[in-house]
């Protein structure tokens, strides 16, 4: 009996390690089309996406090619397809970015040297790319952002997203926070910091500061429980994630002032804050409002040490 000129692929789903892991979502930072990718194992199975799309990674068993779905704004998902893995795409991006620079440097050397020098350098270049390792390329690739890890935010009437103010020192972030809290104490609250200094008369633990020992504070630093921390006159001060979540659980909105370098830590903390940039006024206005005189001494702010 002759076989028909077509075949049917029957997919049998078996449990794998990736299926047992929590859902993983990423935001793409590049455009991708499988039709223009000659390295993909099967172009019809590739998943086309654009920069900014949210992808749900369903399988990462292959180190070079992931299985993913596109997630749309209404919650719908596309059919699964193949996309380049993070490390593979980082190598591609690093090669694309480094080649024009290397070529420009080579052209500049060729203009300065003679024919014999060009031939000598060409030979060295061939040996370098054929025999040299790609460790330098991997180092460059590690800094290339291809996929950004994100989390799926489930709407909840009880969740209060924190408000984070950032801006240059002296632009009035503290004043804005005080005015916002004073406008409605039942809705907004300041975040109580942790500190290792002694309790002053009239201060209440948990209200003025969370007073802890230096050993406890340093242990929290190692466990990355602070968004940022600083040392002033031998004493440690820090803003913890637990203090922010405590306000959220009480039904109020935490309002805090953070340094811009702490935003990366905040972004991956699961707090999902609203970040507000407080722009600096014009220089003339800043000089007037921050003028130093006998009745207004200069206040020097200690720089923060950040956990990134």
UniProtKB/TrEMBL annotation:
Residues 21-93 form the SH3 domain. The keyword Cell membrane does not apply. Coiled coil: none annotated. Gene3D superfamilies: P-loop containing nucleotide triphosphate hydrolases, SH3 Domains. InterPro entries: GK/Ca_channel_bsu (IPR008145), Guanylate_kin-like_dom (IPR008144), MAGUK (IPR050716), P-loop_NTPase (IPR027417), SH3-like_dom_sf (IPR036028), SH3_domain (IPR001452). Keywords: SH3 domain. Residues 160-308 form the Guanylate kinase-like domain. Pfam families: Guanylate_kin, SH3_2. SUPFAM superfamilies: P-loop containing nucleoside triphosphate hydrolases, SH3-domain. Belongs to the MAGUK family. PANTHER family: MEMBRANE-ASSOCIATED GUANYLATE KINASE MAGUK. This is MAGUK p55 subfamily member 5.
């Amino acid at each position: 009996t002759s076989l028909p000129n077509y075949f049917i692929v029957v997919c049998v789903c078996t449990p794998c390690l990736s299926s047992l892991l929590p859902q993983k979502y990423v935001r793409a930072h590049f455009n991708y089309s499988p039709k223009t990718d000659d390295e993909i194992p099967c172009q019809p199975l590739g998943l086309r996406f654009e920069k900014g799309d949210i992808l749900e990674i369903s399988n990462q068993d292959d180190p070079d090619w992931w299985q993913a779905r596109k997630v749309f704004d209404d919650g719908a998902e596309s059919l699964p397809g193949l996309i380049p893995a993070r490390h593979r795409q980082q190598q591609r991006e690093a090669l694309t970015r480094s080649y024009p620079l290397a070529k420009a440097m080579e052209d500049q050397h060729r203009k300065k040297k003679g024919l014999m020098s060009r031939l000598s350098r060409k030979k060295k270049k061939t040996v370098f790319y054929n025999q040299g390792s790609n460790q330098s390329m991997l180092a460059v690739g590690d800094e290339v952002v291809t996929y950004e890890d994100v989390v799926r935010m489930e709407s909840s009437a009880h969740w209060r997203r924190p408000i984070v103010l950032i801006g240059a020192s002296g632009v009035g972030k503290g004043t804005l926070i005080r005015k916002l809290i004073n406008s409605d104490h039942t809705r907004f609250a300041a975040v109580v910091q942790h500190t290792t200094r002694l309790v002053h008369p009239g201060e209440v633990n948990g209200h003025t500061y969370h007073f802890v020992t230096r050993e406890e504070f340093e242990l929290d630093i190692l466990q990355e429980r602070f968004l940022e921390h600083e040392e002033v006159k031998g004493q440690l001060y820090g803003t913890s994630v637990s203090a922010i979540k405590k306000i959220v659980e009480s039904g109020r909105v935490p309002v805090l002032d953070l340094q811009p370098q702490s935003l990366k830590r905040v972004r991956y903390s699961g707090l999902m804050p609203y970040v507000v940039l407080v722009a600096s006024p014009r220089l003339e206005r800043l000089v007037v409002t921050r003028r130093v005189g006998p009745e207004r001494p200069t206040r020097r702010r200690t720089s923060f040490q950040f956990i990134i």
